[in-house]
Amino acid sequence: MKRTLVLAIDIGNSQTAIGIYRNSKVEASYRLITNEKTTSDEIFFRISDFVKHFGRKSKEFTHIGLSTVVPQLERPWIKALTAYFNKPVQIVSSKNCLDLPIAYPRPASVGPDRLCNMIALRSQGVKNCIVVDMGTATTFDVLHDGSFAGGLILPGISVSMDTLTEKAAMLLPVSIKWTNRFVAKNTGDAMRAGILYGFLGQLDFLIKGIKKEIGMENIPVIATGGWGQMLLKRTPIIKSYDPYLTLEGIRLVAINGNGIGNAENEV
Questions:
Q1: Helices of type H across the chain
Q2: What's the rounded Cα separation, in Å, for the pair 254 and 239?
Q3: What is the pLDDT of residues 133-142, one digit of tens each?
Q4: Which 8-state DSSP code applies to residue 171?
Q5: 107-246 CATH pick, 3.30.420.40, 3.40.1280.10, 3.40.50.150, 3.10.150.10
Q6: DSSP structure class, residue 110
Q7: 3-class state of residue 266 by DSSP
Q8: Which residues are known to be catalytic?
Q9: What is the pLDDT of residues 23-55, one digit of tens each?
């Protein structure tokens, strides 16, 4: 088996996750704040610092993969990555998703992060699964008979808190952590309980609805994303949590992708 060293980048709306994979194992990872105004020069030096910090050299990397839900950042990231590694960048898209069937009339409208989760699970031999990805947005996506069957999108936990405090003049931002009561005795705990227990209620209702609609009561539910681990122990619905699910999908596309739709020639 050929040895690989892959850099996988997942640009989300709030945070950007970066991982180094030696073969199929995560060797190092870190997160940075997504900045829509960042330049290719800034990206170049941050990636350089990250690679050097973990004792690697640019020439050691065999593949580079990128997924972004922030379209305006695709160009500067590709420019920086291509300049630093001197290699093409595989960009996850509906045209570059390892032939994953997509049950959308317009496949290009599906977020690449959602496709990455499906790609990663399918590579593990999973044919049927519900993935709950809890980030800036929370997505519920269905892998059915090895195909992306669709899903739904709702505001994430942190977005719900931000919106509540921005729109309600008397409500100030509070940390998001569990309380032990539904009937809170102060405003901060009332907000925490409402958002977190409210999300658990949504989770239960939506998962039941999805299972009924697809006719698969025993389909497993896997969580990923920043808030997934926080909710894992609070509900029996979620069977497992994989913090690297999206990055794993990017790694697979980086190695096996066809490059269709990539923009390295535009930089």
A1: 40-53, 74-85, 112-123, 157-167, 187-214, 228-232, 245-256
A2: 28
A3: 998 899 999 9
A4: P
A5: 3.30.420.40
A6: S
A7: helix
A8: 113
A9: 999 999 999 999 999 999 999 999 999 999 999
